[in-house]
Every structure is written in structure tokens, then in C-alpha cells.
Amino acid sequence: MSELTLLLIRIAYLAVLWIFVLSAISVIRSDMFGARVPETARTPEPRGREPKAKSPSKRRGSPTHVLVTEGANAGERADLAAAPVLIGRGSDAAIRLDDDYVSTRHARIAASGDQWFVEDLGSTNGTYVGTVRITQPTTITLGTQVRIGKTILELRK
Amino acid sequence: MSGVSQTTGNPILGFVHRRRRGAELFLLVLALAVGIGAYAAVGVGVEGAVPTDLIGYGGWLAALVVGAHVVVRLVAPYADPVLLPVVAALNGLGLAVIHRLDLTEDTGFAAQQLVWMTIGVGLFVGTLVLLRDHRVLTRFTYTSGLAAIVLLLMPMLPLIGNEVRGARIWVRLGPVGMQPGEVAKVLLVIAFAGYLVLHRDALALAGRRLLLVDLPRGRDLGPILGMWLISLGILVFQRDLGSSLLFFGLFLFMLYVATERAGWLVVGGGLFLGGALVAWQLFSHVQTRVNVWLNPFDYYGPGTNDTAFQPVEATFGMAWGGLLGRGFGGGDPGRVPFAESDFIMAAIGEELGLTGMMAVLVLYGLIVERGLRAALISRDGFGKLLATGLASVFALQVFVVIGGVTGLIPLTGLTTPFLSYGGSSLVANWVIIALLLRVSDLARRPVPELTAADDAGDQDTQVIRVAR
């Protein structure tokens, strides 16, 4: 092998090595310049998003109120901003239900982190999420049906 | 079960990472060019002809790497696209350099290393296939901690323990020798991550403030003191400076990341400095290392005991390599004893020069960056700590060994990840990469949409209501 060939091989190999390094870096350049958000998701947000960072429950798409969807008090609602929301027949309840199967202080809807929980407060007939009678605080999301006596409640946007 | 329905409407949370498997494949092809190109260049440089087994060797390497890629595609589709190619390139380069040393010294390390690489890729695949969720590992927090301590103690046992070059870190079972410390490294990261994710609140919040630094409470010092004693034990009884520094530094890093308190760094740094000073006073082998580091030329050449022969020859080699290196076959890296294991960076510095050495260092930096990146975007605390721990153990090991070879810190005996000859180290590092890929896969995967499942109960609610 001539000296020149060896020199060329040496430089060519270093070039291959660095081409690999630079390609690897170019694959992860989005780390440095930020990831591309899909065009559809970049629709203009309404102004006044500033308090967004303060509380996760203020995010778009998160529930804002509890709505009674079925039962004697259908249509009644309570704002989740005043959480925890007490539900029952008593006068101190945020949603007062005229339902004989509901206890005075029947259940409570409260937030933990960015999730909403419903908690039974020792009621006579129990609280149901879907078809299951709950024994401990249970996560509910938008549209989950919470049944209390003859009444059904939902989280709504 | 976590934060489900809120993610749909939000553009930031609705962001989905791209899989980037195509980019990974492209980088893997380049990585194979690095590995096989080095093998061909070694053949041309040393023997004057392209090696005859290039097709077979390259095919085997390509089969291993493409096999790993296919498994990643199937079981971890959102995993980081850069880690696997970088590791493949480093491993390929390491194989070529070991082969080059084999040719001058008439040894057969490269073939053995290729076998170890095959086992390593096998374990990599096995880890990815069997471990679909890294959070399963939290169940084995104390089990893996205990296993790590047992592994660390194994070289001290009379029958199977083995002393090689003054360091008692080997276990010999029949013909197969292994360094249990390399495996213990991975287990320790799992144990620390599982422990800290549970107890970090107590370690983070309690304590008092002194001189602008929050110092922890005395009673919380238990684990750090225990780890410090274990590290000192390794230093004293196994005479292994590198592992001692590695394990203690790893614990300190993870403690700092878990608690966000600089106070732990102050306490830990103080403990380490104190321990190191005492060890330096008491033990002659530590003093020798420090003296060789400070005045290498006093211990080199005729008339001296030649303790500095290895580091000084390595320095000569790297100096001769210069900016562009001598080219494969143009240098004489065989002059450095154990060039294929501890001093492989010196061989790379001699034949590929500063340019090649910097490329290797950038590749190591990329691995660490990708690990920390996976930790940043991971959604669970255990995954964060696991990825941070694995990345920092990698960073520490590279720093300790390359710092030692280049004379920045006293020389310690550790392997250079993926480059050095050594089965335990190579296999353990492939498992580390598999764990990092698993964490990054779960971190980059879009959040599962659980709202649909809730609608199923609608009709049933009515039925039960009527039944009452």
C-alpha cells in the first residue's frame, strides 16, 4: 500500500466517523429547537389562557361543572370552582336533591391533582359510578355517570 | 388511570412523539459503516489487504444490529432513535480496535468479544421483550439491592474470588471469569431508584439551613453512610479505586436528582474527600496511583520501578497520534500493556488521533444526553430516577476511565463502555441500553385514551335503577 492510499483511508475513515456523529446529532436536533406541533393542534387559543399554569383543572377540555342529568332535579348544576361539591338532601349541600333515596350528606366531588374524585359520605343507599357501588374515592371523568338515589349526575365542560 | 380525559383538547398534551424508526435504521446503516469500515481499514493498514472474512464479519455484525432494530420496532416502537445506532457504532469500533491489537500481539480477543457482543445483544433483546413496563422493577427494589451486595462480595470469597493485577474484582467459575461489579452496577441503579422514589420526601424536606445550604437531618444520613461504607469497603478490600468512585458517585447523583438538594452533594463530597484522604494516608496502592498521576516520569524508564510505564506509554502514543492519528496499522499501540481493555482509548488516540477521540467522546455524550432526555420526559418518578441513574453511571464510568487514561485524574481500573475488551462490562452495558430504551419508549408513547371505556356503563345504570 502506498503512503498516499493509507493517508486517504485514514482521512476517509475519520470522515465516516464524523458523518455518523453529525447525522446522529441532526436526528435529535428537535431537542434543541423544540418539537414541531401538528398544524391542526396549533389553532388559536382564546385569550386569557394565562391562569392556565396556575391550576391544571383550568385546562381546556377539563370539566367546569356538575350537572344533574336525570331525576327530580334534572338541569340543576354546581360550579366545580367551589370544589369540593357536596351532594345531598341537606340544606348545606351545593346540589340539593329532592329525592327520597338520597341521604342528607350523601356524596362529595373533589379534585386531586388534575383528576376529579367522587366520594361516598356514608350514605344509606350508596353511590354508584356506572354500575359499581363505590367503597372509596373513585376517579370520574367527563360524562361518567354518577348515580345517587334516583338521580344521575355528570361532569360537564 | 392517570390524567386521562384532559389531554384531548390541549395542544401541548395532545402532542405525540414521532416514532423515528426510519431515522434509527438510517443511523444504523451509518453505524455499520463505522464498524465494518474500521475492520476493513485495520486489514488494509496492518496486513496490506482487505480482510478475507470481511463479508462474514460484516454480515454477522449487520445481522446482530438489524435483529436488535427489528425487536425495537416490534416491542418498543416509540423508543429513542439514537441510542441503538450510537451503541452499535461504538461496539463496532471497539471490535475493530481490539482486532487491530490482536494482529500485532497475536491474541484472539476480538473473536471472544464478538461472542460477548452476541450475548449482549441477546440480553438486550430479552430485556426489551420480557420487560414491557419498567415500573415492574419497583417490586424488586430490595431484592436487587441485596443481589448487588452479594455480587460485590463474591470476589472476596476464598474459592471463586480471584485477584488480577492487584484488584480483587474477579470471580472465576471454571473457565469463565466475570466481574460481578459490572452487573451489580445495573442492580444498584434499580435498587436506588426504587428506594429513592419512595423515601425522597423525607430526604428532601427535613433538615436545617446552614451557610446557604440545606443540610439534611442526622437520622436521614443512614443510607448515604451505608453506601459510603460499602464504597470504602470496595476500595480497601478489593483495591478497586474505580468501582468505589463509581458506586458512591452514582448514589450521590441519584440522591441529588431525587431530592433537588445541593446539601447532599456537600455532605457526600465531604465524605468522599475524607474517605479518599484517609485511604491515601493508609494504603500504599492508593499512594502509588496518586504519585504516578502527579509525577509520571519519576516512575518511568530504567533505574526506576517502572510503575508509570502504562500511562506514560499511553501518553506517548496519544502524542504521536496528534490531530489526525497514525491511521490503523500506522501506530504502535501494542506498547501499552492491556491496551485492549483499560487503555483502548489510548489506542484510539494513537491511530485515529484527537479527531477520532473527540468523535468517540461526543458519542458517549450523546448516550448520556439521550438517557437524561428520557428521564426528563418520563411520566413516572421511578422511570425518571432509573434513566437518570443509568445515564449517570455511564457518564461517571466514561469520565473516570478516560480521565484516567488522559491523565486528568489518578488512574483507576474500569472498562471503557462498549469499546474495551471484557464480557461482563459489554453485556451489562447492553442491558443498560435496553432499560434506557424501555424508559424512553414509555415516556414518548402517547397517553392512552380511557374515556371510551366509561361510556359502556350507560345502559346498565338504567337497568339497576329500575330493579330497585
Beta-strand residue fraction of chain B = under 5%
The main sheet of chain A comes to:
6 strands, antiparallel
CATH fold assignment of the largest domain in chain A: Tumour Suppressor Smad4
Unreliable segments of 5+ consecutive residues of chain B: 1-11, 452-468
Query: How many domain regions of chain A?
Result: 2
**Numbering strands along the chain, what is their spatial order in the largest sheet of chain B?**
1-2-3
Oligomer: heterodimer
* Helical run tally of chain B: 17
Membrane topology (chain B): Multi-pass membrane protein
GO molecular function, one term (chain B): lipid-linked peptidoglycan transporter activity
Keywords (chain B): Cell shape, Membrane, Transmembrane, Transmembrane helix
InterPro entries (chain B): Cell_cycle_FtsW-rel_CS, FtsW/RodA
Could you explain the architecture of this structure?
- The complex is a heterodimer of chains A (157) and B (468).
- With 157 residues, chain A is an alpha+beta fold.
- Chain A has 2 domains: 1-32; 63-154, Tumour Suppressor Smad4.
- Helix content of chain A is 19%, strand content 28%.
- In chain A, the strands form 2 sheets. A 6-stranded antiparallel β-sheet of chain A has the order 2-1-11-10-7-8, with no helix packed on it. Chain A has a 5-stranded mixed β-sheet with strand order 4-3-5-6-9, with no helix packed on it.
- Chain A starts with a helix and ends with a strand.
- With 468 residues, chain B is mainly α.
- Chain B has one domain (20-444).
- In chain B, 66% of the residues lie in helices and 4% in strands.
- Chain B has 17 helices and 5 strands.
- In chain B, the strands form 2 sheets. Chain B has a 3-stranded antiparallel β-sheet with strand order 1-2-3, with no helix packed on it. In chain B, strands 4-5 form a two-stranded antiparallel ribbon.
- In chain B, helix 6 packs across helix 14.
- Chain B is globular, with a radius of gyration of 25 Å.
- The chains are: A alpha+beta (157), B mainly alpha (468).
- The interface between A and B is large, with 50 and 66 residues.
